[in-house]
Amino acid sequence: MRARKSGWVGVWFDLARTTARASGKINRAAGKATAKRAGPALRKAATQMLTGVATPTPPPATRGGGRWEVGRWGLGPMAMRRYRLYLPPGVRRPLPLVVLLHGCGQDSASFAATTRAAANARAGGYAVLLPEQASEANPNRCWNWFGREPVVAMEAAILKAIVEHVCDVHRLRADRVFALGLSAGGAMALTLALRYPGLFAAVGTHSGAVPHSASSALQAGHAMRGRRSPEIAGLRQRLGGRRLPPLIVIHGDVDRSVASANAEESVALWLGLMAPVVASAGISRTARRGARHPYAVTDWKRDRRAYVRMVRVAGLGHAWSGGAAKQAFSDPRGPDALKLFWRFFEACVA
């Protein structure tokens, strides 16, 4: 009788699949008849293997104006992370800041390309900060949203330090900081909000697992399959009466890496931590832009404005909705996720 595979093994296989494909490309390229044809394929596949980035991308350029800056910051020499910061052109007043946390198999350059960060920031009039996970901290470049408490706490503290540093140096609006991320980055964005709720005006997660639901790889796999829930009592005690920032969740309904049940769990977590304040019942509507995937929006209101929003995108897998073509974990056919996030964020502080 064949042994049954544990569910979490399949989850990690899905997320690591691009690395396996890269390895296959190396083998195929090595077998080609001419070195001239094999060279580019080998170089690309080798870069994928060495960097842990599924689609290595050149540093973002400033074709539309503004400027990109690269820096390193953290809690000391042994706890530093690289980051990219985009500042749009022609703005004199202090800007809001959107913190974008990439997913596994990505870095700041590839995620900037996937989300069209610079173009959206110019249109919205905000700065964009993209911290970058070090391969030394996680071989797959995943943010450590689960694990032993000291590991998760350190990861969150490093990101908080980067945000505060950037706001201070560039005179950005510390009262208008928003955090969001994809997959592991989405789970990390919500982890940040649960640890430092006063730091953010609103937060969001795209295709992310529900935070504070796992302390091991096995548990994380179950959480990603939608089989674990966070302990609300412990989180309520940690918050100590502090108010959580508004939340927006975006998830595809055919995501096979992180089950869409995680979107529901994240919403339930936020609504549960709002007690004794009660949000109004969810109000739903549907929308579609041309030939793009349709999506459904459900709002839970507090003080007559949306406080928690869930966006379900039909036909979207484990990918950034409306992302750039030829990028891993990106689906150009979906509605533009960063625009959806920004509309919600703007409404939260209007």
Keywords:
10 helices; alpha/beta; disordered N terminus; Rossmann fold; globular; two-stranded parallel ribbon; about 350 residues; ten-stranded mixed β-sheet
Net shape: globular
> CATH class, please?
Alpha Beta
**Element-by-element helix/strand order:** HHEEEHHEHEHEHHEHEEEEEH
| Helical coverage, percent range | 25-40%
Report mean pLDDT, rounded to a whole number.
87
Residue fraction in strands = 15-25%
Number of helices: 10
CATH architecture: 3-Layer(aba) Sandwich
GO molecular function: hydrolase activity
GO cellular component, one term: extracellular region
InterPro entries: AB_hydrolase_fold (IPR029058), Esterase_phb (IPR010126), Plant_Biomass_Hydrol_Est (IPR050955)
Keywords: Hydrolase, Signal
What does this structure look like?
- Pfam families: Esterase_PHB.
- GO terms for molecular function: hydrolase activity.
- One of its GO terms (cellular component) is extracellular region.
- Keywords: Hydrolase, Signal.
- InterPro entries: AB_hydrolase_fold, Esterase_phb, Plant_Biomass_Hydrol_Est.
- With 350 residues, this protein is of the alpha/beta class.
- The chain has a single domain (67-349), classed as Rossmann fold, CATH 3.40.50.1820.
- Helices cover 38% and strands 20% of the residues.
- The chain is built from ten helices and twelve strands.
- The strands form two sheets. Strands 1-2-4-3-5-6-7-10-9-8 form a ten-stranded mixed β-sheet, sandwiched between helices.
- Strand 8 (283-287) and strand 9 (295-302) form a beta hairpin.
- The model is unreliable at 1-38 (pLDDT under 50).
